[in-house]
Design goal:
378 residues, mainly alpha, 19 helices, globular
Length: 378
């Protein structure tokens, strides 16, 4: 499948939600009356940008593997390209972090503890197993590497999906995908009742996020079935209806989060994440099949697409830039409690995006081009 501009826009939307969460909702802010309270509540689910990344990843990676499942060099090409895309920038993040942490140089400036304090076992970051350790105490570890739990899920997903698509017959594949989607909320619900940090474990372990990933893969499979794709193209109202029904859970969970002691975790662990993932898949399908519709035009806006293109750097480094900005300018932990602190947060964001653009052109894109020297042999 050729590159679809709207999917870059969806990446941009996903990272935009993540930035809202960490640069606004996540940070202390002043009590500014009903306006601030309203926006905090509206964006209380902005962390779900990670879920959108999962669905989109399943859609894109699943599509690539479905298109090339009979290639002679199927495994080599897939893993070579994934390594070239994921590993270089990832190790640009974790190697300096580990070196600085082990040197103890950061302790000369205690405010840097916001970035470096309480990391998970350092070797877990290099082996993409950190999500197994975060469930012990319900913590993401050091903020500087806190976001990498989701990459661990992605890498573990890459160890399963290629073999699944290669060895399961074409006729059975959709049933396997649907079974794994159904299994995810069951797994999360069981953890919620039997594990001390069950809600957290269901959030960060691969079996608990299979609904998001395999909804994406199922969407890729659907678009490769000519009869189903034709039916959906002629009847987009079916997708919009599914999008509406699955999206009903979002304002409901937002409401629950505003009520202290409300069972928001229970709703999320059972049906919440699954419904949100279905909503995001419908968004992807509408953006591809409804080329003349408003959603497609919005997702094709250049700034949003540009943000999507540089989203990998932004995701990996956005907490590092936030922490360093406040540490070196104001000698404090990140917060938005007054105008000056908010301007430092904004400056950190501008600096982050500037480096993200440089990284794309100087570092990431050359690796991607190099990886495509190896092609799938039909």
């Amino acid at each position: 499948m050729k590159r679809i501009p709207q999917l870059d826009g969806i990446r941009g939307l996903a990272i935009f939600l993540v930035l809202i969460w960490h640069y606004y909702v996540f940070l202390p802010t002043p009590e500014m009356g009903p306006v601030n309270t309203f926006f905090k509540k509206i964006f209380i689910l902005s962390w779900s940008g990670v879920d959108l990344f999962f669905v989109l990843s399943g859609f894109l990676i699943g599509g690539i593997l479905l298109d090339n499942r009979s290639a002679k060099n199927y495994y080599y090409t897939f893993y070579f390209r994934r390594i070239c895309r994921i590993m270089p920038l990832y190790f640009v993040l974790i190697i300096p972090f580990i070196l600085v942490y082990l040197s103890n140089a950061w302790q000369n400036m205690p405010v840097l503890g916001w970035i470096f304090n309480s990391p998970l076992p350092l070797w877990s970051y290099a082996t993409f197993t950190q999500n197994f350790f975060v469930i012990n105490d319900g913590s993401f570890g050091a903020n500087g590497l806190g976001v990498t739990w989701s990459l661990a899920i992605e890498e573990q997903f890459y160890l399963i999906l290629p073999f699944l698509i290669r060895f399961v017959s074409k006729a059975r594949l959709p049933y396997v995908f649907i079974s794994l989607i159904i299994a995810a909320p069951l797994f999360r619900t069981i953890l919620l009742f039997i594990y001390p940090t069950g809600a957290f474990a269901g959030f960060v372990l691969l079996p608990g996020r299979m609904d998001a990933l395999f909804f994406g893969v199922l969407g890729a499979w659907i678009l490769r079935q000519d009869n189903i794709r034709s039916l959906l193209t002629r009847n987009l109202r079916f997708i919009f209806a599914a999008m509406f029904l699955s999206g009903l859970i979002i304002p409901f969970i937002t409401y629950l989060y505003s009520k202290p002691g409300a069972p928001a975790a229970m709703v999320l662990m059972t049906i919440g994440f699954t419904c949100m993932s279905a909503f995001f898949l419908c968004l992807i399908l509408v953006s591809i099949l409804g080329n003349n519709r408003t959603i497609s035009r919005v997702l094709s806006i250049k700034p949003l697409r540009g943000l999507g293109i540089v989203s990998y750097f932004v995701y990996l480094f956005h907490l590092v830039f936030l922490g360093l900005g406040h540490a070196f300018i104001l000698n404090q932990k990140p917060q938005n409690t007054d105008l000056t602190k908010s301007m430092v947060t904004l400056f950190s964001l501008v600096l982050l995006l500037s480096f993200a653009v440089l990284s794309w052109f100087i570092f990431e894109r050359p690796f991607i081009k190099y990886s495509h020297r190896v092609d799938y042999e039909k």
